[in-house]
Amino acid sequence: MSTVKIKKGDTVKVIAGKDNGKEGKVVLVDAKNGKVLVEGVNMITKHTKPSAGNQNGGIVQKEAPIDLSNVMYVHKGKTTRIGIQRTADDKRPGKTKAVRVAKSTGEVID
């Protein structure tokens, strides 16, 4: 599998599935299984038993992971693919570092 170009804290848009068109912030990235957890997307109801942490138990709404291929990075309000580019490292002369680049504009993301 290729490298995961979406990171925790990125804003993404769902491009496939029941939540198509929704936007949210990435809460968790599971690179091994190719899944992401996005705030307010793919909500499920979970029935919980009473426990020390949750005295009453009951029905809880929470996000479930969705496949990485079903989300797209949002850059300046528009969805775009992400590329990797090597640039000179200011802190280490003669060395390069990899940075993420928006394919649509060519701007460095981080």
Automatic annotation (TrEMBL):
UniProt keywords, alphabetically: Ribonucleoprotein, Ribosomal protein, RNA-binding, rRNA-binding
Family classification: Belongs to the universal ribosomal protein uL24 family.
Protein name from the UniProt record: Large ribosomal subunit protein uL24
Domain KOW residue range list: 5-32
Gene this chain is encoded by: rplX
Xref: Gene3D superfamilies: 2.30.30.30
Species the sequence originates in: Kineothrix alysoides
Entry GO MF terms: rRNA binding; structural constituent of ribosome
Function: One of two assembly initiator proteins, it binds directly to the 5'-end of the 23S rRNA, where it nucleates assembly of the 50S subunit. One of the proteins that surrounds the polypeptide exit tunnel on the outside of the subunit.
Pfam family, any one: ribosomal_L24
Subunit and interaction comment: Part of the 50S ribosomal subunit.
One GO-annotated biological process of the protein: translation
GO cellular component: ribonucleoprotein complex; ribosome
Start and end residues of each stretch annotated as Disordered: 88-110
